[in-house]
Amino acid sequence: MRKFGFFLLYGVLSIFAIFQIYPLVWLFFFSLKSNSEIFGNSPFSLPSAPKWENYAKAWTDGNINTYFFNSIWITVTAVVLTVLLASFATFAITRMNWKLNKFVLLLFMVGYMIPIHSTIIPLFSFFLDWHLIDNPLSIILSYVAYNLPLTIMILIGFYNTLPREVEEAAVMDGCSVHRIFFRITLPMTMPVLSTTVIINMIYNWNEFIFVNTFISSDKYKTLTVGIQNFIGQYLTDWGAIGATLIISIIPILVAFIFLSNRIVEGIAAGSVKG
């Protein structure tokens, strides 16, 4: 009976995995087709003659190489700033006794409830006054501000499980607050930091609204906006669009593979208090 239970469980998980992986496989085959194949054959058919030149066309003719590296450095910069600032704020809220720590936490949580679309016009006006329209700094600041509340909320749940005795012992040994944070607390939070890193990466990498609103120059655009280069008034190159989507998936997929163990550790550790 136990073996049958395991067989049934793995069977259900295998079916679920197939449904999750198949769209990626379908998109890969889609990226190797021409427009005539895409619209003339079954959507589930394999490419008769794989058009690998779709990837070359996307990388060079579509300026995807520039958008790809823009996505990388903007995403990395925003993620590092978000995680670092969130760690500072969480440490101050949970480890320091000051009068306004609960109020500051409330402000961050209120920020989490504000819809992203309601901030577009105020942010555009703000960046316009500071001459940051068509400047990557406007995108980075928007990402950091939008992701900070969620990151702090995740970190607080983990910080509450950390033993204070280690930090108290460090204080008794004469360790400063800065050394306690960077040498003791921050290394202990690495599992949950990996979780916040991948969450922030996925959002920043796939974000469209801020980039499309604040950036107009090709030299600063990211992949999500650059895909529009293949959409013309009379002709759309769907194969190149598929190739661009596959290229855009690879960094997130690689990051998830390398951080998957850390993510599971962070979720498990943050779910048990004490």
> How many strand units?
0
Helix content: over 70%
Helices and strands, in N-to-C order? HHHHHHHHHHHHH
Count of the domains: 1
Q: How would you classify the helix and strand content by structural class? A: mainly alpha
| Overall pLDDT score | 86
CATH class: Mainly Alpha
Strand content: under 5%
Instruction: List low-pLDDT spans.
Output: 270-274
Oligomer designation: single chain
What is the overall silhouette?
Answer: globular
Radius of gyration over all CA atoms, rounded? 23 Å
CATH architecture call? Orthogonal Bundle
Annotated CATH topology: MetI-like fold
Q: What is the name of the CATH superfamily?
A: MetI-like
How many H/I helices? 13
Largest sheet: none
N- to C-terminal separation? 36 Å
Task: Give a verbal description of the structure.
By secondary structure, the protein is mainly α. The chain has one domain (59-271): MetI-like (MetI-like fold, Orthogonal Bundle), CATH 1.10.3720. Helices cover 75% and strands 0% of the residues. The protein has 13 helices and no strands. The longest helix is centred in the C-terminal third of the chain and has 34 residues, at 238-271. The radius of gyration is 23 Å and the shape is globular.
Q: How would you summarize the topology of this molecule?
A:
Layout: H1 2-30, H2 35-40, H3 53-61, H4 64-95, H5 101-113, H6 120-129, H7 136-159, H8 164-172, H9 177-188, H10 190-206, H11 209-214, H12 223-226, H13 238-271
Helix pairs in contact: 1-13, 3-13, 4-7, 4-10, 5-7, 7-10, 7-13, 8-9, 10-13
